[in-house]
TrEMBL record:
One of its GO terms (molecular function) is hexosyltransferase activity. Keywords: Glycoprotein, Glycosyltransferase, Golgi apparatus, Membrane, Signal-anchor, Transferase, Transmembrane, Transmembrane helix. This is Hexosyltransferase. It is a single-pass type II membrane protein. PANTHER family: BETA-1,3-N-ACETYLGLUCOSAMINYLTRANSFERASE, HEXOSYLTRANSFERASE. One of its GO terms (cellular component) is Golgi membrane. It is found in: Golgi apparatus membrane. The keyword Transmembrane applies. One of its GO terms (biological process) is protein O-linked glycosylation. Pfam families: Galactosyl_T (PF01762). Belongs to the glycosyltransferase 31 family.
Length: 415
């Protein structure tokens, strides 16, 4: 931030007062007769110059003009005294310049200090889809954490739950990633994919596990800059299956009822998760000293109102980088932003990805929304069945007997 306005005002006020003081000094020296004096040194040469102009004017009109007799009204003011006061004026002006210089130096110093941010995110786009949200009626913008070499995962998403042709509400999906070290062939293939589908957002940070926080911030920045008119935002990963039919129905209900839809952060909420000191997610005390994390969301999928996404991006510059992206994005940023409450959505998550078909094509298919994908080849078959269920084309095979219809069991005689 720049220095407070009151500080600058005090400096400028001081400068004005010094200037007024100089004027009063000169006015006092030149007298108080009320005459308008346009210069501080009236010399004989000046008087003669005025007389000469008056005579010339009179001759040009050929009419007698009375030449005004000009005199120095302050004959008692000696040249030495004027020079002395001019020296005083220079000294005071020098002091004024020092005051202004000091104020400017203080302002510049404060400005340099304010430019230091905790997490600047100094990355640039390698690939961007600026016009993905040109449609002004976007209901849900989905950003998917992906990687440059995950082409097959993105292709499956585009053909299944990420395709807008299945829904009445308008959705848009973009895939967010960093740069690759896998060679120029991977990048060239990604650029071709981007030209075809126009749904790739790539920044120039290295796409790695410990840089997932950069990926999350990149996505929030993109939503804030290019899709801020959407109603809701879904974050997910490219190995997550989404029952978009149930999700959109639920989100439409929330939007219609205005149930905290402007400050929504809905997810599988983790409370007092223990900080891991060993293994893949090891976090040393030097990076996070507490033994438990504050409340945050599972990073597999979470839904938020677009206002929340914009607010979290805005405060991300003030929150120091922390590589555990789930906790940073959905824990630290909401904590900093304030007025964002986590809403539990646990019942819609299938934590065992091996049960994908069982859960999403069974009699309770409409109760589940998110699941990890263990078998990428099975996703399209499950999706095709789910589409039929959602449109009422097929009825799920209920394996449970109704009351009064229990199967008969043959009696066996024990030996």
């Amino acid at each position: 931030m720049l220095p407070r306005r009151s500080s600058i005002t005090r400096v400028l006020t001081a400068a004005v007062l010094v200037g007024m003081g100089l004027w009063l000094v000169m006015a006092g020296l030149l007298g108080s007769t009320g005459s308008v004096v346009t210069t501080q040194l009236v010399t004989v040469n000046t008087v003669e110059s005025v007389r000469s102009r008056q005579l010339t004017l009179a001759q040009s009109h050929k009419t007698p003009v009375k030449v005004q007799k000009l005199t120095h009204r302050h004959s008692n003011l000696t040249l030495e005294k004027i020079q002395s006061n001019m020296t005083l004026m220079k000294v005071n002006m020098s002091g004024l310049q020092k005051i202004i210089h000091s104020a400017n130096k203080s302002q510049n110093s404060a400005a340099k200090t304010s430019l230091k941010v905790a997490n600047p995110h100094p990355f640039h786009y390698l690939l961007n889809t600026q016009h993905a949200c040109n449609d002004k009626d976007i209901f849900l913008i989905v950003y998917v954490h992906s990687a440059p070499n995950h082409h097959k995962r993105r292709s499956v998403i585009r053909q299944t739950w990420g395709s807008g042709k299945y829904y009445t509400q308008k959705i848009k999906v973009v895939f967010v990633m960093g740069r690759t070290n896998d060679g120029v062939e991977v990048q060239n293939a990604l650029e071709y994919e981007s030209d075809v589908y126009r749904d790739i957002v790539q920044e120039d940070f290295l796409d790695s596990y410990h840089n997932l926080t950069y990926k999350g911030i990149a996505a929030l920045k993109w939503v804030s800059n290019y899709c801020s008119h959407a109603k809701f935002v879904l974050k997910t990963d490219d190995d997550i299956f989404v029952n978009m039919f149930t999700l959109l129905r639920h989100m439409k209900s929330l939007y219609t009822l205005k149930a905290n839809s402007d400050s929504l952060l809905m997810c599988l909420v983790w409370y007092r998760m223990k900080v891991m000191r060993t293994g893949k997610w090891k976090v040393p005390k030097s990076e996070f000293k507490d033994d438990y994390y504050p409340t945050y969301c599972s990073g597999s999928a979470f839904i938020m109102s677009v206002n929340v996404a914009i607010a979290m991006h805005r405060v991300s510059y003030d929150v120091p980088f922390f590589w555990v992206d789930d906790f940073y994005i959905t824990g630290l940023l909401p904590l900093k932003a304030g007025n964002i409450k986590h809403k539990q959505f646990m019942s819609t998550y299938v934590l065992d990805g091996t049960k994908l078909k069982e859960k999403f094509t069974g009699p309770q298919w409409y109760s589940y929304i998110f699941s990890h994908v263990h078998d990428l080849d099975a996703v399209q078959a499950v999706w095709a069945e789910l589409v039929k269920l959602a449109h009422g084309i097929v009825v799920p095979d209920i394996k449970y007997a109704y009351a009064g219809q229990l199967p008969k069991v043959e009696k066996k005689i024990l030996p």
